[in-house]
Design a protein that fits this description.
Blueprint: H1 2-48, E1 53-59, E2 65-71, H2 95-102, H3 110-115, E3 120-122, H4 129-138, E4 151-153, H5 166-179, H6 182-198
Helix pairs in contact: 1-2
Length: 203
């Protein structure tokens, strides 16, 4: 009984820590990266004249569907043949898209999703409903990824990114979910900074 109570208290403290970190970094992120968003938006518009912000349905915590915000990095006709898994060196990605993906600038609008409590700073990347259903039929318990809020960055994103197939991604996401801690979050943040600087493994 004492151990169970201790675990519950630890979970409450961790959840409170996550909420504070999410709110602090999302507000700070919006303020600090606003000039970058403006410049990136102008370049996206100049390249092909299409929309700057890309809005797409994704599966969030407990299976709730929400609209995710991203700077558009693919051609406007990228999904004319339907949804498909994004791959490394995807030929649908624009010239500007390659840059903003490599540096993760395309993910910056998701600070809004964090403020809306649809996402967290750290967690599994949210998938579209159709792919979530597809992978759940192919990979046992794939849906378990939605036990927590999806994140802008996460264990899978900084340990493979585009090089991971859905099963490998699931395994890394579950490792994070089962081992969440302040220490692991700090490691992910540091590795994310390394990915941004080096431009490797971004998703």
């Amino acid at each position: 009984m004492a151990n169970t109570k201790k675990i519950k208290v630890s979970k409450v403290l961790y959840d409170s820590y996550v909420l504070c970190i999410d709110m602090f970094f999302s507000i700070l992120g919006i303020i600090l990266t606003f000039p970058i968003l403006i410049v990136a938006g102008i370049l996206i518009k100049i390249e092909d004249g299409g929309p700057i912000i890309y809005i797409q349905e994704r599966v969030g915590k407990n299976g709730e569907v929400f609209n995710i915000y991203k700077l558009r990095s693919m051609r406007t006709d990228a999904e004319k043949c339907g949804m498909r898994w994004a791959a490394k060196n995807d030929n649908r990605i624009t010239k500007i898209g390659k840059i903003i993906r490599r540096t993760r600038i395309d993910e910056l609008p998701q600070f809004i999703n964090i403020l809306k409590r649809e996402m967290s700073l750290i967690g599994p990347r949210p998938e579209v409903p159709s792919l979530t259903e597809k992978f759940n039929n192919e990979i046992d318990n794939f849906i378990d990824r939605v036990k927590v809020r999806p994140g802008i960055t996460g264990w899978a994103q900084v340990n493979g990114g585009y090089d991971l197939n859905p099963k490998q991604k699931y395994e890394k996401d579950m490792y994070y979910i089962e081992n969440r801690s302040v220490k692991l979050d700090l490691i992910i943040i540091l590795k994310t900074i390394s990915v941004i600087i080096g431009g490797h493994g971004a998703r």
